[in-house]
Amino acid sequence: MIHWRDLMQPHRIVLMLLFAALVLWCAISLRWDWIPQYAPLALEGLWRTVWILVVTTVLGFMLAIPLGLAQAVGPWYLSIPARTFCTVIRGTPLLLQIWLLYYGLGSLFPQIPWIRSSELWPYLRQAWPYAVLALTLSYAGYEGEIMRGAFASVNKGQLEAASAFGMPRLTRFRRIWLPQAIRNVLPTLGGETILQLKATPLVATITVVEIYAVSSRVRSDTFIVYEPLLLLAISYMSIAGLITLAFRQIEKRVPR
Amino acid sequence: MDAILETLGLAQSAELLAFSPPGWGGNLLRGLANSMKIASGAFGMGLLIGLFGAYGKLYGGVVVRDLLAIYTTVIRAVPELVLILILYYVGTDLLNKASLAMGYGRVEISGVVAGIWVLGIVQGAYATEVLRGAIQAVPAGQIEAARAFGMPPLTLMRRVTIPAMMSFAVPGLANLWLIATKDTALLAIVGFSELTLETRQAASSTRAYFTFFLAAGALYLIVTLLSGVVFGRVEKWARRGQPSLREGGR
Question: Which three-class secondary structure state does DSSP give residue B144?
């Protein structure tokens, strides 16, 4: 954690003053008059970014647990598909995956009559299901690899002790194996979540209006280049900071 | 060959992916070449920034250390896509101002150079952290011994620090290289004709989305897997003479 005395060194004070001057200069000489007009849209975009981030990390993590388990202890007919999935997801750019799902599946579905007449069709015509699916699969792919290591690193003796006490397999998994695996990955989980945050602007390319898309819209409407981008960078940094703080709190609560 | 493709129902895809003009295979390969050019340039520039950055973070003065901390933190917290846009606009603006001031007209920057500049700065932040960790992992006694013998700093870096840290740095650098190859895809959004953009153009003009996106995915995957093999070799070479982790340490 940052201590007050660390900040109060002479060179840091000078740096902070310089930074304050820079902020002041930005506030005065750059154009910010577009903000009131676009503020509601920007808030909506911010909300959508956070929503996509939370939904895809939660779903992706739930998918990563079986993927990691299959790779760590599964039989070959489960571990080979799981490993292939992780390799393919990690070996190709996310942008390509998003476009494959959106343009590929999106152009395939309308040709199939029973999908067109099903109740899912109104959703499948929108962009966000594809965005959520692509980001979830991507997070699951990266996290599945990490969970593999986490499951393998849990102390064998504890699992043996649990089965010696006659604990059923599912309870053993739920109460001994999974909690310890998650505890082991907690520090990397924070970093992975920030990486996921940094992946969310890609869904703007398939017409999902999140915060990045709002800033591009401001740029193309008003021809103001730097100001929206600057504000965008600051909002991503604040979200990343919040994620870091949240994970630090969680890590503090988990017993070592 | 044709008969096999026909029975598999792939004849149409093969036609679309042919290398000569009615097919789009040539365009995809040209895109791949551009991607690889940008990725290797950015990786090299990142290594250079990273080496200076790591030395600055470890041995620099207080101001240098704080500035580098800001650089690495900001770059790692802001999405690459946003950084690419900011650096692209800043880069072209600065270059145009400089060339106007020197009396030349506006300059056109090639996509490859702009891509290398933009991704190189992003890579530099990650490389700084990787190399700093690797240098710290070198036993301090080795560097002190070289200093005690009066080895000049550059020779020390070339003959002691870099060879000794290589084995610690290679896994992280391999990861960075993979990130660089995948990040080139982001340049598609700014309009550079690298693999992903070429693929999208081919796909949207032929309506064969699956064929082209899957083909491009396969190309990226081949690059990833080959890089894995190459970096495995490099790591083995960097570890030569060290006890292997499996057998040693008993």
Answer: helix
Q: Is the ipTM of this complex over 0.90?
A: no
Minimal-distance CA residue of chain A relative to B190:
A205
A142-196 pLDDT, tens digit per residue, is 999 899 988 888 888 888 999 999 989 889 988 988 998 988 888 888 889 999 9
Reading the block at residue B249, the tokens are 């340490």
Number of domains in chain A: 1
Q: Which CATH architecture has domain B36-193?
A: Orthogonal Bundle (1.10)
What is the domain extent for residue A105?
35-253
Contact B12, B24 (CB under 8 A): no
Q: Which amino acid is at B12?
A: Q
R_g of chain B, CA atoms, integer Å: 23
Query: Are the Cβ atoms of A107 and B209 closer than 8 angstroms?
Result: yes
Could you report the per-residue pLDDT of B150-160, keeping only the tens digit for each? Answer: 999 889 988 99
- Give the number of C-alpha atoms closer than 13 A to the C-alpha of residue A26, restricted to the C-beta side: 12
pLDDT at B104 over 90: no
Asked if B132 and B54 count as a contact pair (C-beta separation under 8 A), the reply is yes
User: Which residue from A20, A69, A92, A169 is spatially nearest to B185, judged by alpha carbons?
Assistant: A92
Exposure string over A134-158, b if 16+ CB within 10 A, otherwise e: bbbbbbbbbbbbbbbebbeebeeee
Q: Which of A12, A92, A241 sits opposite B66 (nearest CB)?
A: A12
CA distances from B124 to B51, B136, B157, B241 (A): 9, 18, 19, 30
A58 assigned to some structural domain: yes
Residues in chain A closer than 8 A to B203 (CB atoms)? 103
Contacts of A15 in chain B (CB under 8 A): 63, 66-67
